[in-house]
Amino acid sequence: MSAIQSERILFIGDSITECYRSEKEHHSNQLGYGYVSFIYALLQATYPSKHYKVSNKGIGGNTIRDLQERWQRDVLSVKPDLLFIMIGINDVWRQFDQPSTISEHVYPDEFIETYRHLVQQSSAKKIFLLSPFYIQSEKGDPMRKMMDHYGTLTKSVAQSCNISFIDLQKQTFDPLMQGLDDIEIAQDRIHPSSVGHMVIARTILTHLDYKWDN
Q: Taking 60 as the threshold, does the pLDDT of residue 159 lie above it?
């Protein structure tokens, strides 16, 4: 059965995933204003009989450590068919915005070990790891270089666990930056505009074999 037919889909991550979602039960904005809501809208509009159960478990500022603390509550107890994980941006960012607060830094070894442990606990039918990204076209920029490295670490976790990897940096944003200025995609280089969120949604749906000519 195609992955797109799965009904229970969970997205977990940081503020990029959260995107102002409400945590109030049955609130009209439980999915936020970003890529999660775009994906749900496109799936439900295209396949109205499926009644997708989409959950947004993004929380702003989260690192892989934070996901570990809430994994049982927000992932394992939900038992999703499809699980999408986007994490790593804050793991990198903390090393730049809080350089002297070493206790807040998540270094590569911890990142890989924790990530692999979380993935191995999940019983989802299909798991996708999404790379962290930085909307900076200059690849020599220090933060862009470190973000690329954590993207490579994410890919290594996916490969070792034999699950899917989606490279949002190289597959999605680098091509987009060839046609648009960085600031048009994300003013602070981290939080995408509606265009940025839509291109994330398109990339994910493409990996689900969504037919854009429906």
A: yes
